[in-house]
Structure formats: structure tokens, C-alpha cells
Specification:
Blueprint: H1 2-28, H2 31-50, H3 73-93, H4 101-107, H5 112-130, H6 142-169, H7 171-203, H8 213-221, H9 227-233, E1 239-242, E2 251-254, H10 255-272, H11 277-288, H12 292-315, H13 323-343, H14 349-377, H15 385-416, H16 418-424
Antiparallel strand pairs: 1-2
């Protein structure tokens, strides 16, 4: 069961990474969009230099003043590096590197709720700048999209309310809750990714840099039986038809089930700040029985709506978005994802898979080592502040060192093979 969940999450991550790469390429190849981005960055850089002597607040995002526009050149540079590393992972592995963004921001001293809001805004900004009316949107079933987005909107409202309520009760409680969710998710992904890597090494295979077994999960998901058949057999109005181009007569399912799935995706996205794409794919394919062909198009709409609605209505208007960090991450990820995608042409997939598993596990241990200190602050366990600080530092430093090694390795491979890549282009 756990392995099936891993395969589903990886299939979703792959689908989201393909969209991310396409969106980034769309921005980079469009001079007007690049110029617009640079115009947004110029005032940020100028004010950063003017405030070079300032330091970050001890608590970024306190209850009385969230300081969404306060920054220094150093924290802006960190945001670019975080975006760069996430982009390198996404481009190299062909699976979402966005999983590391919120843990990385929290390790850099950003409050969990502010990291979530900022990550959602970064996703929304990229989607709005890079997503044109793409031919893939023709694959979307309007009925599925509407029902899903209605549920997603309700889920976003619920997740945002809970996140803010936890923060207002106790900021440490909010950080603990977000960290715990990431421990579970990254632990599952990281352990199985490492098991796959070790299995491929023993077998002597090169390994597909873009997902391996997850591709099989994606391809086979359209043939899912069992639960999808039972849900489609339940004639609860309103019924929504879809996949007419793939199945004679098409399929149909109750909009109630689609809305429930949307509510779950919106709820998780609003709490974790990941856009919800990693859940949409497995839910559509393995629960609702929708084809991958239709799911990908719907996921594009879902990401834009969910990230935008959550970031604006649940975080921006309450001051929980650090706009400077969002722009820095956008800038870094645009570069990183292109370099990462090109590097896969000159690096064996087995090595990339190994680095990916290691990076995900580093994120897992980062949040795991931060938990004891949070629990001690909440008086749930007894732990000396000094020892809690040591554990937190170990988690943070190990995470950044692993990700930095991965980034340096990828960039060095790209630079060493740039002539070969130019010839192929």
C-alpha cells in the first residue's frame, strides 16, 4: 500500500514538473515577460542595497507586524539560491523540487505560515506569467474542472483558517504542525526513492532520470479498476461525463466525488504551500478513474486557481506573504530548471535519482530534527534549549549542505559539457 502511494505521488510529481518546465521555458523565451520580471526586480535590488546595513527582525512575521516587505540583500540572495536548487532538482529529475522550498525557508528563519504563503504566491506568479492558453487545456472536461475547483475553493478556505488559527494560538504550534506534515510526506517519498535507487544500483541499471517506476504508475493509472468503477457506478447527481475521445461513449462520475477530491487538494495545498499538484494526479487517476490525458490539463487549471486563491485570500490579505522572497525564488527557479533539464542529457540517470533521494531525505531529516525543539517549546516533551538548538542546527546544516552539493555538481556538469550541449541544440 505504501509503495502504491509513493508511485502515485511520484507520478503526480512528474506531471507537475513537466508543467513547471514548460511554464519556465515560456517565460524565458518571451522577451516581454522577461522584461516585466526584470522591472519587478529592479526596485527590490535598489531598496536592498539601500538597506544593506539593516538586519532581519528576530521573529519574521510576529503577531503585530508581519513585515512582508522587509528584507536585506542576504535574505534576497538566499531566496534566489533556494529557487535555483528547487529548479535544478525539478529540471534534473523531472519530478517536483518544490517539496524542499517550504522546509528550506523555515530553516532560513522564516515562520512556517509565512513560508507556506510565500511559496503559494511564488507558484501563482510563475503560473500567471508562464501559462498561456495551451493546447493541453483542450483536454480538460469543463464539468470535472468546475466541480473540482468548487471543492478546491472550500478546501483552501478550511486549510487557511486552520493555519491562521494555529498561528494566532501559538506561532510555534503552527511551525510544529507544518513540520510534522512535511516529515510524513518527505519521509515516504525519500525512503522509497532511496530504495528504488539502491535496487537499480544492485541491478546495474542506468535508471530513468525522470521517474522510472513512477512512469509505469502514470501509464497504468488509466486502467485502474475497483474504486473508480464503484464511484462511477454511483449515480449521484450531478453526473459529469469525460474522456469521450478515449473511451467509446465516454465515462461519467458524480460531481460530488470530484468536489470532495478538490476539497482535499485545496486543504492540503493551503496548509503545506505546495500548489496541490502532487495530489491531483493520483486522485484523478486512481480514485476517480480519469485518464492521464485529461488529468494533466485539469491539473494546470487547478494549480493556477488553488495557488492563486489560497495565496491571495488566505495569506496575502493577512500579511503572510514575503513578496521579496517570492520574486527571488521565481528568478532562481527559472534559471535552475533550464540548467537542470539540459544537464540530464549528459549525466547518467542513476546518479540523478540518487541525488534526488538524498535531497528529499535531507528535507525529511531537516524537519524531523526541528520537531524536538518545537515540541519542547510547547511543553509536550522535556528537552534543554541547548540540545534542541544543536539538533535544529544539525538538521538545517545537513539539509543545506546536501542541496548545495547537488547544485554544485549539476552546475559543474552543465559548464563542463556546455560545448556538447550547444552542438546538440
Amino acid at each position: 500500500m505504501a509503495r502504491k502511494i509513493y508511485q502515485a505521488l511520484m507520478a503526480a510529481s512528474i506531471a507537475h514538473a513537466k508543467w513547471d518546465l514548460e511554464v519556465s521555458a515560456n517565460i524565458i523565451r518571451n522577451r516581454k515577460k522577461l522584461l516585466f520580471l526584470l522591472m519587478l526586480l529592479i526596485p527590490i535590488l535598489l531598496v536592498s542595497l539601500a538597506q544593506a546595513g539593516d538586519v532581519m527582525p528576530e521573529i519574521l512575521g510576529g503577531k503585530k507586524a508581519y513585515s512582508p516587505a522587509f528584507y536585506t540583500p542576504s535574505i534576497f540572495a538566499v531566496s534566489i539560491l533556494i529557487g535555483l536548487c528547487a529548479g535544478l532538482i525539478t529540471g534534473c529529475i523531472g519530478a517536483g523540487g518544490g517539496f524542499i522550498i517550504t522546509p528550506a525557508l523555515m530553516s532560513a528563519g522564516i515562520k512556517g505560515i509565512l513560508a507556506v504563503g510565500t511559496d503559494l504566491f511564488h507558484i501563482f506568479a510563475k503560473a500567471m506569467m508562464g501559462t498561456a492558453v495551451h493546447k493541453k487545456l483542450g483536454n480538460v472536461s469543463v464539468g470535472l474542472a468546475v466541480a473540482f475547483l468548487v471543492g478546491s475553493g472550500l478546501g483552501v478556505l478550511g486549510g487557511g483558517v486552520i493555519n491562521r488559527a494555529l498561528y494566532e494560538t501559538n506561532p510555534v504550534l503552527s511551525d510544529t504542525f507544518i513540520s510534522l506534515l512535511y516529515v510524513v510526506m518527505l519521509g515516504l517519498l525519500g525512503i522509497y526513492a532511496m530504495v528504488d535507487f539502491i535496487r537499480l544500483r544492485k541491478r546495474g541499471g542506468d535508471g530513468d532520470a525522470h521517474g522510472g517506476d513512477a512512469h509505469g504508475a502514470q501509464a497504468g493509472g488509466d486502467e485502474s479498476k475497483g474504486l473508480p468503477d464503484r464511484l462511477q457506478a454511483a449515480k449521484i447527481p450531478p453526473m459529469i461525463s469525460f474522456d469521450h475521445d478515449l473511451v467509446p461513449g465516454g465515462k461519467s462520475i458524480s460531481g460530488v466525488f470530484v468536489a470532495i477530491c478538490g476539497a482535499v487538494v485545496g486543504f492540503v495545498a493551503a496548509i503545506m504551500g505546495v500548489g496541490g499538484g502532487f495530489l491531483t494526479f493520483p486522485m484523478f487517476v486512481y480514485i476517480l478513474g480519469v485518464s492521464s490525458f485529461t488529468t494533466v490539463g485539469t491539473d494546470i487549471l487547478q494549480i493556477i486557481f488553488t495557488a492563486g486563491f489560497a495565496s491571495i485570500t488566505q495569506y496575502a490579505i493577512y500579511g503572510f506573504i514575503f513578496y521579496t522572497l517570492a520574486m527571488g525564488m521565481l528568478l532562481g527557479s527559472l534559471l535552475g530548471i533550464q540548467v537542470g533539464a539540459l544537464t540530464t542529457k549528459v549525466v547518467k540517470g542513476i546518479y540523478i535519482r540518487g541525488f534526488y533521494a538524498t535531497a528529499i531525505l535531507a528535507g525529511f531529516f531537516n524537519r524531523l530534527f526541528a520537531l524536538p525543539g518545537k515540541l519542547a517549546e510547547l511543553k509536550i516533551i522535556s528537552l534543554s534549549p541547548r540540545f534542541a538548538g544543536i539538533l535544529d542546527d544539525i538538521g538545517a546544516w545537513s539539509f543545506f549542505i546536501v542541496v548545495a552539493i547537488f547544485a554544485i555538481w549539476v552546475i559543474s556538469k552543465f559548464i563542463a559539457n556546455i560545448r556538447k550541449l550547444r552542438e546538440e541544440a
